[in-house]
Design goal:
CATH architecture: 3-Layer(aba) Sandwich
Number of helices: 8
Mean pLDDT: 94
CATH superfamily: Alpha/Beta hydrolase fold, catalytic domain
Distance between the termini: 23 Å
Order of helices and strands: EEHEHHEHEHEEHEHEH
Radius of gyration: 17 Å
Strand order of the largest sheet: 1-3-2-4-5-8-9
Oligomer: single chain
Number of domains: 1
């Protein structure tokens, strides 16, 4: 299916560098039910593009938003706040609602955190949330070290793959911005306290082999959610990026079933 670039890609208030090849936002029109797809920290829409194609093939319109500061140049991340990322997702939701009567939000990692934030902010616009490999909290060492280190070390290298399938090539930054990592810490802390206010149906998907977000995070989110309709679906052959790894097919199928059930 040929991707269309949604208008959301040109609405950021700050002029950005050129988008990395393959990191463009996407739009796959398919029906009156739609799903906004939100990528993770340091990633790009490419991380959820295959999921978008699958859902569209199942009759669900999908829009993959590119979060502010992502998919361009790592220097752009230094200037971002978590508010910018949430605003990017909100703009994507607004765009999707121009085409669909019923809307869901699905996100991976930080994208799952943002999806839960949108459900709290816009309960009248979101029918359900799919949060994949989403952190309930971040490691204590990170929360202690990142805030002071960001003034001395702006970047750190990222060398570890986030999939068990080593043939996967991710379109993302090869470094992490520590100022942006501090913003990620703030976002996760804020949304953790908002979880009891999320009342729409929620599907959590987690991997037992996730080396980035540990296995305790999914159950802790499940317990904290205010929703009476919530589920935790486990996969067991993938690392963190389950939308690109060995379990992507069952992940996509369960997500499609959830959307059809709740729509």
């Amino acid at each position: 299916m040929k991707s269309q670039t949604p208008a959301v890609s040109s609405k950021n208030p700050v002029k950005e560098p050129a988008i990395m090849p393959g990191a463009e936002p996407f739009f796959f029109p398919a029906g009156d039910t739609g799903c906004l797809l939100v990528h993770g920290f340091n990633g790009s829409p490419d991380g959820v593009r295959q999921m978008g194609e699958y859902l569209a093939g199942a009759g669900i319109t999908t829009l993959g938003v590119r979060l502010h500061g992502h998919g361009t140049d790592i220097a752009d991340m230094d200037r971002c706040s978590c508010r910018d990322w949430v605003a990017s997702a909100e703009t994507g939701l607004q765009e999707l609602r121009r085409h669909c009567r019923t809307t869901f939000v699905a996100g991976i990692s930080m994208g799952g955190v943002i999806s839960l934030r949108l459900a709290r902010l816009h309960p009248d616009k979101i029918t359900g949330v799919i949060a994949m490999c989403t952190p309930y909290d971040l490691p204590l060492w990170m929360k202690i070290l990142v805030p002071p280190l960001k003034y001395m070390i702006r970047r750190i290298a990222l060398n570890r793959p986030s999939t068990k399938d080593l043939s996967v090539v991710e379109i993302n930054y090869r470094q992490a911005s520590l100022p942006s990592a501090h913003q990620l810490i703030k976002l996760v802390d804020e949304v953790r306290h908002e979880l009891p206010l999320v009342t729409c149906p929620v599907l959590l998907i987690a991997s037992r082999l996730d080396s980035t977000v540990g296995v305790k995070n999914g159950p802790r989110i499940l317990a904290a959610l205010g929703s009476a309709d919530k589920e935790l679906f486990w996969v067991g052959r993938s690392d963190h990026m389950i939308t690109l790894d060995y379990d992507k097919e069952p992940v996509f199928q369960r997500a499609a079933d959830f959307i059809r059930e709740k729509a």
